[in-house]
Design goal:
- The radius of gyration is 21 Å and the shape is globular.
- By secondary structure, it is an alpha+beta fold.
- It has an eight-stranded mixed sheet with strand order 1-2-12-3-13-16-14-15, with helices on both faces. It has a six-stranded antiparallel sheet with strand order 5-4-9-6-7-8.
- It folds into two domains: about 230 residues, Aminopeptidase (3-Layer(aba) Sandwich); about 90 residues, Peptidase M42, domain 2 (Elongation Factor Tu (Ef-tu), domain 3), CATH 2.40.30.
- The two termini are about 40 Å apart.
- The protein contains ten helices and 17 strands.
Length: about 350
């Protein structure tokens, strides 16, 4: 099936929400999910928590709303901006990009620059530039001119458009993790539109600051105190040239959501997710995780007295680049799996082991 991109997801992808500055994505979540939620609240770290239903036990779906970015750290006498990174970057990817500096007065556009290849010697051409060797050029001619437009501490994101590729595939910045954000709140919307009343109340959470240490998940999980929680994120698709599947496993675009298995995952939650996929004919893949994952699941599992945690991921190519690629069918299948999982839970379910 070749799906068109949903307007809710499209707006999320167009929002600019680098870690610590998630308000644009949060506003879109409130716009689309608010009417379906019994309540939607914001907290002091930028999380958005929407709740549906009134069961005595709580299921929490968590997906992070932040993305990688840059932060202005210095302005030189000639008006060039230097920066530090927000989240993990491959410095090979940073130079030569169009960017938007999110100033107090709106976006200021620029490009990332470094010395052209013609001005490097043979050794320098083989080196990956360090962050301080790259700058942002906003066209200013002096420090004063630049400071009239931007300030130290302004966040920066890549300025790229969402593009439809062949079939049901799309390229954009911030599919990590707007794809997951869309999925968890779309579940809530579909529960409401179908008038379904799961035994568990369902909390859909957009967590902040995941890219710098899963920080938003801590207060969100503490506040909700869920009985069961599923983190929804992206994972590396390995179906591209040069990827060694002996090291990274086999994960393919278009083959369905990825259900994690390992010590970070409650085995009964894993089994129930697989059972739901099989019952509904939803294609799925399995990924082995040998340690605490690099997702909100690592926090959810050990919140308060411990939570029955799961992790469902959407396959993604080229993570943490301006051109992340997903298959829309995988996102749709993820939504369906999470919805079925929410409906399958019974008040009597026991997740201890």
């Amino acid at each position: 099936m070749a799906l068109e991109i949903d307007e809710f997801l499209l707006e999320l992808l167009r929002s600019r929400s680098p870690t610590g500055t998630e308000h644009e994505a949060a506003q879109i979540i409130e716009k689309y999910a608010g009417p379906s939620a019994d309540s939607i609240v914001r907290d002091h770290i930028g999380n958005r928590i929407a709740v549906y239903g009134s069961g005595e036990r709580t299921l929490m779906f968590a997906a992070h709303s932040d993305e990688i970015g840059l932060i202005v750290s210095y302005i030189d006498d000639d008006g060039f901006l230097f920066f530090d990174t927000l989240g993990g970057h491959d410095n090979v990817m940073i130079p030569g990009r169009r960017v938007a500096v999110m100033s107090r007065n709106g976006n200021v556009y620029g490009v990332t620059g470094k010395r052209a290849v013609h001005l490097m010697d043979a050794k320098e051409r083989k080196e990956v530039p360090e962050t301080h060797q790259i700058w942002i050029d906003i066209g200013a001619g002096s420090r004063a001119e630049a400071e009239a437009l931007v300030e130290i501490g302004d966040p920066v994101v890549y300025d790229v458009a969402v593009r439809k590729l062949a079939g049901g595939r799309c390229a954009a910045r911030a599919f990590d993790d707007r794809a997951g954000c869309y999925a968890v709140f779309e579940v809530l919307r579909r529960l409401k539109s179908s008038n379904l009343k799961p035994d568990f109340r369902v909390a859909a959470v957009a967590t902040s600051q995941e890219e710098i240490g899963t920080r938003g998940a801590y207060p969100a999980a503490y506040a909700m105190n869920p009985d069961v929680a599923v983190a929804v994120d992206v994972t590396h698709a390995t179906d591209f040239p040069t990827c060694d599947k002996r090291k990274f496993g086999s994960i393919k675009l278009g083959k369905g959501p990825v259900i994690a298995r390992g010590p970070n995952i409650n085995p009964k939650v894993f089994d129930k997710l697989v059972a739901c996929a099989k019952a509904s004919g939803i294609p799925y893949q399995i990924e082995a995780e040998s340690r605490p994952t690099g997702t909100d699941a690592r926090v959810l599992q050990i919140s308060r007295g411990g939570v029955a945690a799961g992790l469902v991921s959407i396959p993604l190519r080229y993570m943490h680049t301006p051109g992340e690629v997903v298959d829309l069918n995988d996102i749709e299948m993820c939504v369906r799996l999470l919805k079925d999982f929410a409906v399958s839970l019974k008040s009597s379910d026991d997740f201890t082991y």
